[in-house]
Design a protein that fits this description.
The structure holds two protein chains of two kinds.
Chain A lengths: L1 H20 L3 H22 L24 H32 L15
Chain B lengths: L6 H15 L4 H26 L5 E4 L10 E4 L1 H24 L2 H4 L3 H17 L3 H20 L4 H32 L4 H7 L6 H19 L17 H25 L5 H24 L4 H22 L2 H32 L14 H15 L5 H16 L2 H27 L17 H23 L1 H16 L2 H8 L2
Antiparallel strand pairs in B: 1-2
Helix pairs in contact in B: 1-2, 1-5, 2-3, 3-5, 3-10, 3-13, 3-17, 5-6, 6-7, 6-10, 7-9, 8-19, 9-10, 10-12, 10-13, 11-12, 11-16, 12-13, 12-15, 12-16, 13-14, 13-15, 13-17, 13-18, 14-16, 14-17, 15-16, 15-17
The chains are: A mainly alpha, B mainly alpha.
Chain lengths: ~120, ~500
């Protein structure tokens, strides 16, 4: 399962980077979103995909025994998803404003702040 | 346990909230923000005085014991960074009063600045690597909005580049944190310091170290990851670019120094060797990039990159003197660079442009000319100003370890920095004012009262630069202690894990 996930995540990274390198403004948003999801999936997989019991300590014990699902990577991903969502919403609005002002979808038209004058 | 160190987070947060309640009254917002920033400066100075004796302040959030909860830690290095963050926050705050304009101020400019300061303080305080990611996002989202606020076309264009590359860096950072947790089972930096040297094979630890180098390297604008900086920093109002120039890249440098002294010391030859090589290239590309520019703030932006090279050069050399040099360099650089951007803003206020070809004749304002020369000479490293002592320490330690190549680069870059500063001096201050073209940009928004208020923070920062140079002994002694704490993190680890 981990091997399959490794290929899925690799594919997502490739797709995200490809989208970021395209000349279209919209694909910048898509690329960032795919890249963020790839990162989240990688953390999830790196935490281990073994099936186990929920991390609840039984009443008669003081510690977990046997394999259990580590809740921390999920908690990290949850935080990352929330942050990613907020930031992506901002990016979408920013791209919209850029498009309104420059009236093109072509990133090559956005060279003005790098120009020597 | 010390509750004092939660205050650098609480003060900006509550100032921002109070500012939001005063949404309709700009006057009130300005004063709330000023009082909040001043309070932050007082508290951070108190923290620095407390830690300067060598004690390490630790706060376990909600009293969860160390490897499990979120830990806030302050050692001397963090203490310095907190004070500098508050100082720059206050200076740009006062500067904003007359320069940012009601159009931006009415849309939450002051609360955003406070959130930005909270994010910066959080990054300096935290002892948990995932928490560091969260603080990075807090300061990033505030900076994204500040960068785009006002909605001028160059601003939007710069913001798009800034946002995209910084989000890419966040994704890399997140992945590195995830894998680090999978390998070691901990996120607490002090616990990681014990766990990372045991990672087998060592190549895995090196890979992780490189991922962190890339993630923080984009934020710190090191070679070859700096391209977002010169294409965005010259677009927002002067106060905002001064705030960014002083603080944001230095948060990246802080994170690099923290991570590469506390956690990733498993293979110094590889990681720190790489950092030295990158440092040399960063210095050179930054300073050479500046030569071609003709925009006041763009030249300064490229110099930020070049100066970042010096800061991580000390980290790469990894001796007590070199790290002390790095710490001192950061202190010196934050003050000087913010000041130069503020001076650029004053020139723009008086003449209405940042373009060197259209500027000239500023020698009519002798006070302003002196206030430019102090930080400019300090940046280039002319004694007895602060930059000289920072460079001296780095060059000495480079000679001591036998890294002659990096020393040569550092000295050449220093000379080229001088060239850039004399170029600005010649074009802006010394040459006669060019005859304005027919349509002309017209005079700037000259208002004597505005300029007078703008010159207050500029003068104070210039005075601090001179004081740092003349009183280098005291501060440098403290920087040496900070470096000793960084190089031998036992005290830090014991304070956090309470062993």
């Amino acid at each position: 399962m981990e091997v399959l996930m490794a290929f899925v995540i690799g594919g997502l990274y490739a797709a995200g980077i490809y989208l970021l390198l395209r000349r279209s403004l919209v694909s910048v948003i898509l690329g960032l979103s795919v890249l963020g999801n790839a990162a989240n999936l990688l953390i999830f997989t790196a935490g281990g995909l073994t099936r186990g019991v929920p991390p609840v300590i039984p009443a008669e014990a003081t510690a977990m025994s046997g394999p259990f699902a580590d809740p921390l990577p999920q908690a990290l991903i949850l935080t990352a998803i929330v942050i990613g969502f907020g930031v992506l919403a901002f990016t979408a609005v920013l791209v919209h404003r850029v498009h309104q002002n420059i009236e093109t979808d072509d990133l090559d038209a956005l060279k003005n702040t790098d120009r020597l004058d | 346990m010390s509750n004092l160190i939660i205050l650098p987070l609480m003060i900006p947060l509550f100032t921002a909230i109070a500012g939001l309640f005063a949404w309709r009254s700009l006057r009130l917002q300005r004063w709330i923000s000023f009082v909040g920033s001043a309070g932050l400066l007082v508290v951070t100075v108190a923290i620095l005085v407390t830690v300067s004796g060598g004690e390490i302040l630790v706060l376990q959030a909600s009293n969860w014991p160390a490897p499990f909860g979120i830990t806030l830690v302050v050692d001397i290095f963090s203490g310095f960074m907190l004070v500098l963050g508050a100082l720059i926050g206050l200076a740009t705050n006062v500067y904003s009063f007359k320069t940012v304009g009601p159009g931006r101020e009415a849309f939450g400019y002051y609360p955003l600045c406070q959130i930005q300061l909270m994010g910066v303080s959080g990054a300096f305080l935290t002892g948990d690597i995932f928490n560091l990611y969260v603080w990075f996002e807090v300061l990033l989202i505030a900076s994204f909005v500040l960068m785009a606020l006002g909605g001028e076309v160059p601003q939007l264009e710069g913001a798009l580049k800034y946002v995209t590359l910084n989000l890419l860096s966040s994704a890399v950072f997140l992945v590195a944190v995830g894998i680090l947790y999978a390998v070691t089972g901990s996120l607490n930096m002090a616990a990681l310091a014990g766990a990372v040297p045991n990672i087998q094979p060592v190549g895995l630890a090196n890979t992780l170290a490189t991922l962190f180098l890339v993630a923080f390297g984009i934020k710190a604008a090191i070679f070859p990851l700096f391209f977002w900086l010169p294409s965005s920093y010259h677009t927002p109002p002067a106060a905002v670019s001064a705030l960014f120039a002083g603080l944001l890249t230095k948060v990246g440098v802080y994170a690099l120094i923290r991570v590469f002294t506390l956690i990733f010391t498993q293979d110094i030859g590889f990681t720190h060797g790489l950092i030295v090589a990158v440092a040399g290239l960063t210095m050179l590309t930054g300073v050479l990039g500046a030569v071609a520019q003709n925009d006041f703030r763009k030249i300064l932006s490229f110099h930020i990159i070049s100066q970042i090279g010096y800061m991580i050069m000390g980290l790469g050399l990894y001796t007590p003197l070199a790290l002390a040099g790095s710490v001192f360099y950061i202190i010196h650089h934050i003050i000087v660079k913010t000041n130069l951007f503020l001076v650029a803003g004053v020139v723009n206020q008086l003449r209405g442009t940042y373009h060197l070809k259209k500027l000239g004749g500023m020698y009519q304002y002798p006070l302003l000319a002196v206030l430019f020369l102090i930080p400019a000479f300090s940046l280039a490293g002319v004694p007895p100003l602060s930059g000289f002592f920072a460079k001296l320490a780095l060059v000495q330690s480079g000679l001591a370890t036998g890294d002659y190549a990096i020393v040569a680069v550092a000295l050449v870059v220093s000379l080229l920095t001088m060239f850039s500063m004399t170029k600005i001096w010649g074009e802006v201050f010394w040459k006669p004012l060019p005859v304005p073209e027919q349509e002309g940009e017209g005079p700037g928004l000259t208002a004597d009262e505005a300029v007078r208020i703008m010159l207050i923070p500029v003068s104070i920062l210039a005075a601090i630069t001179v004081a740092l140079g003349l009183g280098a002994e005291t501060i440098f002694a403290l920087a040496v202690r900070a470096a000793e704490q960084l190089l031998d993190p036992t005290a830090y680890i014991n304070a956090v894990l309470r062993q």
